[in-house]
Amino acid sequence: MTTAAAYAAPAPKAPLERTTIERREVGEHDVLIDIKFAGICHSDIHQAQEGWGEAIFPMVPGHEIAGVVSAVGPGVTKFAVGDRVGVGCMVDSCRECENCKAGREQYCVRGNVPTYNGIGKDGEPTYGGYAQNVVVDENFVVRIPDGLSLDVAAPLLCAGITLYSPLRRFGAGPGKKIAIVGLGGLGHMGVKIAHALGAEVTVLSQSLRKREDGLRLGADHYYATSDPKTFEELAGTFDLIVSTVSAPLDFNAYLSLLKTEGTLANVGAPEEPISLNLFSVIGGGKTLAGSMIGGIAETQEMLDFCAEHGLGAEIELIRADQINEAYERVQSSDVRYRFVIDTATI
Fold first, then answer.
1. How does the average pLDDT of the chain come out, rounded?
2. pTM, whole model, 2 decimals?
3. Mean predicted confidence (pLDDT) in 281-293
């Protein structure tokens, strides 16, 4: 075992505090990563507060990890010491089911092993990226291209792939009208990626407070959803809407904004059930879909795409002792657009 300084939540809803954790020894196919930066995702907060159900404590959150390889196991073929790498939301899967074999490890039939708040194949709890280092099987590590600095690349390991995957799956591109609901940590990457794919991009946000930012990031249009006229004016407009918000929405209203046979893809995960009138999807042959991160190959594809187009996250770099304050600010939407921890301060 090796040890690492980390920040952990000792119990549900408890403030995170500095601690020491144990990492497994570097195995045959493992990579030891010296973590440089770790993004703070809203899902870290949901899990640390048990908003999505019972969780494992102490919890070291963090699944937006960017760092440098510091050691490799004897069987490793994909990485070498000194490589710039990333780790996202999962660190293993069964590798044998239909989904794993198709490169959709995120939908592993037996359940993937999450980067934190999970149990690894060794039976031990997994600890995430709010730490100095991490040991991960090489097959669940991706390469960060030289065109991306590590600090702005870290959030791409969750926020980037979470938006890239449905935008690609549902055909965002030239001639398509795409709406992104919410301009936060997820939404701002959705705007950048949809714009780079060549789509006409609209932001649907509660207010016009971030309008200038939205247009700067690549949106063509920006509307306030708090204004009832928005839903009248935009009825039947979009080929695809991607909702990034974790609060329950009036899905019937948003479905009315789709063209015939359009899709509303949901990547935000509200803690409460939603209510839906099925005539909202039956009329117009519309699709209400879900999407969860992406497979390892698609995550690498996304990083290469972002490097090619110069797309990093918009970040606010913080010290580790600011994590609890950052959690409060995320919950009050007071960040533009992703907090990233400088792990040298742990």
1. 96
2. 0.95
3. 95
Backbone torsion region of residue 198, taken as left when φ is above 0, otherwise alpha when ψ lies between -120 and 50, otherwise beta: left
Residue 34: predicted pLDDT: 98
pLDDT score of 271 more than 80:
no
Joined tokens for residue 96: 């044998």
Three state DSSP letters for the chain: CEEEEEEEECCCCCCCEEEEEEECCCCCCEEEEEEEEEECCHHHHHHHCCCCCCCCCCECCCCCEEEEEEEECCCCCCCCCCCEEEECCEEECCCCCHHHHCCCHHHCCCCCEECCCCECCCCCECCCCCECEEEEEHHHCEECCCCCCHHHHHHHHCHHHHHHHHHHHCCCCCCCEEEEECCCCCHHHHHHHHHHCCCEEEEEECCCCCHHHHHHHCCCEEEECCCHHHHHHCCCCEEEEEECCCCCCCHHHHHCCEEEEEEEEECCCCCCCCCCCCHHHHCCCCEEEECCCCCHHHHHHHHHHHHHHCCCCCEEEECHHHHHHHHHHHHCCCCCCEEEEEHHHC
What would the pLDDT profile of 58-101 be if each residue is shown by its tens digit? 999 999 999 999 999 999 999 999 999 999 999 999 999 999 99
**What share of the chain in percent tops pLDDT 70?**
100
Two tokens at 130? 């709010």
Residue type, 202: T
